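Board notes, transcribed. Complex of a protein with zinc ion.
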Amino acid sequence: MIFLHKPYIEKKNKKSRLIFEIDIDEEKKKVWYEVDSEYEKYLCDDRVDAILVGMLHYALVHGHNIQSDSYVTDEILYKIKTFLLPSIVKYAKSMKMIDISIKTKPAVEGAEGIGTGCSGGIDSLYTIIVNKDLEEKQFRLTHLCINNVGSFNSCYKEKSLEEVREFVIEKAKKIAKETGLPLIVTDSNFHEEIPQSHYHTSTYSSVFAILCMQKLWKIYYYGSSGLDYSKFSIIDNDEYACSHYELLSLDCYSTKNLKIYSDGGAVTRFEKLQRIYQEPLVKKYAHTCTVKMQNCNHCPKCKGLLLAFYALADNMDPYKEILDVDYFLEHKLEYFQWLYEEHRYGKVGMYDPVYEALLKREDFKKFIDQKKQEETDEEYNYFEEEYNKIANSKAFKVGSVLLYIPQKIKKWITKK
Ligand SMILES: [Zn+2]
């Protein structure tokens, strides 16, 4: 069983911590979430919504029921029990149905803030650019956020977690300054205290951070993982990233006073770039690399970004601050070759929109035409060789008459 004790706040050196003590059977855990003390008034210590969502995946995988001596927001508990759990448990081999027994109270009232994360990634920049100057004032961004709930762990192995965090914060400060929005930097030991696969639990830990500050947010744009809504699925959900069922889960964690949107899912990553590639924020800060703090130019994500800019922009010079454009232009054919192979053999089709867009550029079109010709020649040689093997073997013949030709080769002869 998991028991969630009533949360409390501790203040130290101008920082305020919301503290959750948790018993997992006999084991005691202490998870904290920290903000500058000026934001202390927004920390939600009268209910366990945040830690309930944070621990939910863990509880489902380990089969722990959940209880508490605090409260949970009635709508959140209702939606988790009625919609989320029955759906995802049914379609996951590794999850067990659990019971959650916590007293309820109505949703937090009076929150005014509209926030989103500020990592400098394409999804994040898109969400910021699109929502910062919205005509509809009631949806316009008011705050940017950097939450440390585990996403820094999975990247940039050559640097320490602290270095990565500092780097991301420095960049976020610059983005915040340029957009004129306040930046809230938070910290937490959640991912150290409750180690989990980021891939399977990123939504859960991100929502943990959002709900800790539930008294601030009336809207939170959760910049999703580059998947558009067509990729929604709960089938075999324990084998895929939890972002696949965000459309369902984020709604279950929302209340009548706080809406968490899966932002950007109406468009693919390439469509996002199409919308924002000329924006100064993109030219200065876009970061896509999963290997290095500066874009490395060589990992699949960096290659995809370079090729996308090449497809979209007539002039690559504006991207010199974030990518090694000269190297790319000198080695263009190697990048073309990579995209051609991704398109032909890749399973996910992640870069297909870039491929399609690039076909409008003459040099890429010529490269692909040549590849197609090579494919045809290759196919011709293969079938000719196979045909000759059969024609020259006695096994398929009576006298000079061929008795058997495989279907595939028959088709090739007809085509020829
Ligand atoms: Zn890279």
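Residues 288-360 form one domain. Residues 20 and 31 are 5 Å apart (CA to CA).
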